[in-house]
Request: fold
Amino acid sequence: MFLSIRDEVADALAGALDALDLPEDDLGIEEPPEDVDAVLASSIAYRLAGEVGAPPPKVAADVAEAIDAGEYEYVDAVTTQGPYVNFLPSDRYFADTLDAAQSDGFGRLDDRETSVVVEHTSANPTGPVHVGRARNPIIGDALCRVLDYAGYDVDRHYYVNDAGRQIAVFAWAYERFDEGDLPDPERDKPDYEYVRYYRKGNAFLEDAPEEEVEDAEAEIEAIMQGLEAGDEDAYERVSEVVDTVLSGMQETLARLPAEFDEFVKETRFMRNGSTADLVERLKELDQAVYDDEAWQLELDEYGIEKNLVFLRSDGTSLYPTRDLAHHEWKFDNYDRAVTVIGEDHHLAFEQLDAALDLLGNDTDQLDQLFYSWVNLPGGEGMSTREGTGVDLDDLLDEAIHRAREEVEDRLDDRIRDDDLDVEDVDRIACQVGIGAVRYDIVAKQPTKSITFEWERALDFEAQSAPYVQYVHARCCGILDEAQGASNRSSGDEPRDGEAQVTPTPADVDPSLLDTDAERDLLRTVARLPAVIEEAAEDLQPHIVATYTRDIAERFNVFYRECQVLGDDIDPEVRDARLALVAAAQHAVANSLDVLGVEAPESM
Reply:
């Protein structure tokens, strides 16, 4: 309903400005402060004051007077407060919000018939995923969910670097060293087993006698040349390590969860000839120069001082060259392409965008979401090559362990009388622990660096995943209790797995939800579709996280001030409040789902 009332407000303002013969180019629609009893407001009077030659409050009053609220379904009244024009919601707005939010799919927008490929994570397949890189899959997966909820047809891609020098070193090291020369793996998992060869190989190249290093470098170069030439043997040698390590990395990422529709390999664009074709097209550009024994693109006209090197003197392409072919393939197959990428890749992305433009592509199809790093207290380093840092698996294990301790400590204080067995506690610990890590990371603006702290992430009383998850569990508890009371009054025994029965809006009187706490909660529930729309347009999943905190706070105020169940509650008020609880439950569950955080039914 929020989107509908926003359209009505825009129409009302445009009509008023037309009647006053004033420009309509900026309506200044915004959400008012919490203490203002309006759903939307307009600051247009600020912009028009100079043109009209009157103070903003006078302009606001004139605009409000030119609007007939009776013409609209969801606008009940138009008032002013200083320079602001405020739009108050009608009873129909609240009634229709209550109705719409009974749906499990509440918050999903209409199909836009637009395909989007989101490339995220794409960590080099050289070893386990580190905490420092965890922000990419978490933000990337949340962004995919946001776009899916917003009506886009989303494909999730992981771009696999299987053609660079690092991978050639890895393949050589795997063939060169025996397992007996390696330390025991930290985990019984493919990525942990194979990363030992990678680390051993890099240590050898740094410390071995010069002659042996030269021989090794010749073998590594041969692998790279073989990949460039499309040699099947070279490809299979590289695939052995890449696919094995990637399988282990997928296990870790699935724990978040972060899953992919396709793993697109770099070598795909070498083997099908598109990289070679692209190199020839780049050479023909006026901006192409051969300098320092390499082919380069001069990008001064784009304000980029550093040239883009796209071909070495030995005839081998570089990562950016293959990525250009990769992006042209994206443009051929999707309406939009979004990349989630670290902040240290700003220059590389600017070069990519400029080169794509020079090649005649519509770069308006391309968007990016830059993010900063995740740190742990103490600033541990993150190096796969040297084997330092904290693996994501370790962080997730610790999160589940700490969450289990929190859940067990709270068992005696639980209000609900459902008995939790060991499996229930394990399940909830996993939901809360993984949710805490994921939420704490996605809730921050991507460009701001994060220092992950356990006390904040697992705080049930603060703005954290457990805080919001607990609200969902409380909603489920109220609805379960109402279901049980309904069964008892009818003489029936509640059945395991029985669907929650709550009054439908057709059976309730929404006007009975007239307290500030009830109306504030309904207003917040109504905003979810608009929050999804904004997060998708701005490519900022953290906007949804902010919303989850808002609705959790509003629900807790409602819970404290408005009794839902009890013999002393009027049945009609009880039914209206139960419908409101169900609406809040769907809004909380779906907003958490957008973030990839599970919504426990019991905690």
User: Anything to note?
Assistant: The mean pLDDT is 92. The first strand starts at residue 29 and ends at 30. The longest helix spans residues 465-490.
